[in-house]
Design brief:
ADP-ribosylglycohydrolase fold, 56% helix, binds magnesium ion, two-stranded antiparallel sheet, mainly alpha, 2% strand, globular
């Protein structure tokens, strides 16, 4: 099988040909990534570290934010966890390290991409719908799932088509919290990334802002994977969102982030500033603020997200995805990587996602 040597690793074919590939067509030819892309992304081992950093990183962020999701004041958080708030994985009805519906639905998206990421949009979405419905019925769906996600899954279960199964009036963050794998999988094709991320919202959330927010999480993940300059993320996101249907609310919040970075999180991650993240545009903006405050410090980023009075697990989940993709797996504290629920599965899914996206990993 054809391959091309880049650096001291080999990108093995077949790799999707971005210029020829069109949705609905399978591409079976050999194709090497451009030198420019390879230079930007580094070796396969670096890519694997970033893919795994993203998936493991979002799960840990989610698990850190789980015990504070329903503590709605800083006083309540400090009363329970001390003056510094949450600083470690904590038990809360479930053992320490348990993640929530945010990660469970993200894994649904990842598995669908692994199975059908190169197929037509309808085939991919059928795989995703199957995953969502199975998750909604599973015994492990006991982590305070979003009401809109569950309503959408009930519609899907009753046979309603994925494009119209979502709640049209809901811009809840349930679809923005789960699209990091789409950012990884389509990182080198922004058009396709946006198309798939927006579609992935529709089974549960049909509001235009929800679709744009889902695309925003995926875009930020892709930019982080590429190692792009974090300081430019807010203005870059605002620019893309202003051009996108439904993106205006994300754009307005993203544009405010640079001026807020010098302010303390408790004065920013609140209803009258960036919001409490129960809706998609606020969740993306809050997560991006957390990342931009400490772009090279995964631990600080996810703990900033976890110690909030709003939807802390979703903020820390999205922030963890971006930071993990940017900093790689080794930047995540080892004790958290070991204690996170289903650690082996998270690492494996990330590797399968990388391989399915078109890059062979050593030993594969
Ligand atoms: Mg949750």
């Amino acid at each position: 099988m054809a391959g091309c040597a880049i650096g001291h690793e080999t990108y093995a074919a077949p790799i999707r040909n971005q210029r020829r590939h069109r949705r609905g067509e399978r591409y079976n030819g050999a194709y090497c990534r451009t030198v420019r892309t390879a230079t930007e992304l580094g070796t396969i081992m670096e890519l694997l570290s970033r893919f795994q950093g993203c998936i493991v990183g979002l799960a840990i962020g989610d698990a850190l934010g789980r015990p504070t999701e329903f503590l709605h004041t800083l006083a309540a958080i400090h009363a329970r966890f001390g003056a510094d708030g949450v600083t470690d994985l904590e038990p809360d009805g479930h053992p320490a390290g348990t993640y929530t519906d945010d990660t469970q639905m993200t894994l649904c998206v990842a598995r669908a991409l692994i199975l059908a990421g190169h197929e037509s949009l309808d085939t991919l979405m059928s795989a995703m719908v199957k995953e969502f419905v199975e998750w909604s019925r599973s015994a492990e769906n006991d982590r305070a799932p979003g009401t809109t996600c569950m309503a959408g899954c009930r519609n899907l279960s009753s046979g309603i088509e994925w494009r119209v199964a979502g709640i049209v009036g809901s811009k809840g963050c349930g679809s923005a919290m789960r699209t990091a794998p789409i950012g990884l999988f389509y990182h080198d094709n922004e058009r396709e990334l946006i198309e798939v991320a927006r579609a992935s919202s529709l089974p549960t959330h049909g509001h235009p802002t929800a679709l744009a927010s889902a695309a925003a999480t995926a875009l930020l993940t892709a930019w982080a994977l590429h190692g792009d300059e974090p300081a430019e993320f807010p203005s870059r996101l605002a620019t893309v969102m202003r051009e996108m249907e439904g993106g205006e609310e994300v754009a307005v919040l993203a544009a405010r982030i640079p001026e807020l970075l010098s302010a303390a999180p408790e004065s920013v991650l609140r209803k009258d500033v960036l919001g409490e993240a129960w809706v998609g545009d606020e969740a993306v903006a809050c997560a991006l603020y957390c990342f931009c405050r400490s772009p090279r410090d995964y631990r600080t980023t996810v703990l900033t997200g976890a110690n909030t009075i709003g939807d802390s697990d979703s903020i820390a989940c999205i922030a963890g995805a971006i930071s993990g993709a940017y900093n790689g797996l080794d930047a995540i504290p080892k004790k958290w990587r070991q204690r996170i629920e289903k650690s082996d599965e998270l690492h494996r899914v990330a590797e399968e996602l990388l391989r399915s996206a078109g890059v062979s990993t050593p030993g594969s």
